Amino acid sequence: MANELAQLTGFEEKDVQRALRALALEPFFDDVMYVASGDVIVGAPTGNALRVVGQWPTPEAQLDRLIAAIEAVAADEAQPEEERSKARQLGMSLKGALYQVAIGALGGAGGNIMSG
Fold first, then answer.
1. In which domain, by residue range, is 98 found?
2. Is the distance from CB of 87 to CB of 95 less than 8 angstroms?
3. What is the tally of structural domains in the chain?
4. Which domain of life is it from (predicted)?
5. Residues 16 and 35 in one domain
6. At what angle do helices 99-108 and 81-95 cross, to 10 degrees?
7. Per-residue pLDDT tens digits for 55-111
8. Whether 29 contacts 46, CB under 8 Å
9. Verdict on whether the full-model pTM lies above 0.85
10. Percent of the chain that is helix, strand, coil (3-state, to 5)
């Protein structure tokens, strides 16, 4: 892993190892194994690590994306008025009283409902 990262980043392997040791303390990886040489072998990044680097959206960001998509339907004149009205109502609800409920639901799902 460190060798591959060194090649990809252009850093020396010893610098990559030092960075991996520092990141393993948070922890930013699911599995961390220290070997006798002092090197560290890491597994997949945690959800927290992905959020820190912006690769895993927060529940708030996910909800904002959902609200924006619903508002787009509400504004789309090609949609039937009944659908647009429902979308407007849902968007207003999610921006209002249901906001914290939705955030809790998205956060409880590991924040990975709307990835991609």
1. 59-108
2. no
3. 2
4. Bacteria
5. yes
6. 80
7. 777 888 889 999 999 999 999 999 999 999 999 999 999 998 899 999 888 876 554
8. yes
9. no
10. 60, 5, 35
